[in-house]
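User: I'll paste a sequence; please echo it back and then give the predicted structure.

Assistant: Echoing your sequence first, then the prediction.
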Amino acid sequence: MYRNYLFIIITCLFLGACAGKNTPIYADFKPMKENTLDKDLMRAFVCEHYGEFQCARDIYLNLYEENGELKFLEQAFFLSLSHNLDKTKELNEKAKKFLQTSPNIKRLSVLYSLSNMDLARAQKLVLELLKSDDYPGNYELYGDILLRKNQLKEALKYYKIAYKQLPNEAMALKMIGIYTLLNDIESMKKFLVDMRKKQGCTLKTCAFLSKIYLDEENYKELEGIYLELYELSFNDNFLLALIEIYIKQNQKQKALDLAFQYDLDDELKVFLLQNLKRFDKAKELSLKLYEKSEDKEHLLRAAVFEFEEASLNAKPNLEVAKSVAKKFEEAITKENSPLYLNYYGYLLIDYDLDVKKGMEFVEFALQKEPNNFYYLDSLAWGYYKLKNCKKAWELLEKTFVDKEFANSSESKEHQKAIKACLNDLR
């Protein structure tokens, strides 16, 4: 009706604009009375639009009292029940005289009885509805009553009828809830697969299906589900979950491709490039991130990636070592991670760039992790370079408790060199 009101206003404005001094006025013309009903309906609509449901309810209730039209009572009763407002008892009393003539009023009365846990009255009213009206909501209401009575299988039966007539997410979620209570995961899965096939994914239903596939470790199906969920929500977490699956299956290239396809977090891209030993690209991206943010962590990573790239086929030459050391020099402080401190320190020692300075950085690392075999080995190598072979061997001996480390190629190389140095001293 409010649309009629708007039409009247627009028409009057148009006529007013056209009217002038010379426009004839009919003698019997009388101004139209304001349509107060349309005006009240517009106010109710505005109240509902802005979530002021009590305001809207009161307008509908007043309209019912003034006009006696049942639809206003229905709307007032509905708003009170759906938004837990006051006056539901009063409205239920007013509705009683329409129970046998209005299916809508009867359904609202069922909801009222349910909210007050009067299951006997609710069931009686629904059974009357089911005899005379095939509306899907009646089956859903009966399912709600049976659920309250803990008759789960019977409730599911009526929910299925309602869903078959009017498939929607809300009804599907009620069925999923019962399948969960019955611990009938296979039936839930069958229902969700069929729903996805016929109606497509919804965010909630396919989230349930993805959980089932995840528990089954059915990664093939999960791939499609996660991509669909992402398209529905644009939530990167679904793509990150898919990348985690790819990594678990050792499909690192697919993980990297996905990260670049959807332009995911740059830190993730660096991690995936590193995992694939694409150190050149990891370095390139790290340098871009450094230029953008001036965060020196990115420069330190770029230095490591440069050295690791050069190490893939053979030991890097002195020029590479100097280039890497220059980046470290620009970015590192003793507050950095011990991994970086040892990496830089060992580089300076191994390439004779500045052995004493290198040992200082290794000692900074050892202050944070005193028993780290790698750092002890680096310091031992520093003492070896300074010809203090006895001290070097004492430090190296501390690493022998770890058989795996002691048998590594680098440790064996150091053992051999330091032993030879000790023999020369004798």
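Residues 1-34 have pLDDT under 50 and may be disordered. Residues 2-18 form the longest helix (17 residues).
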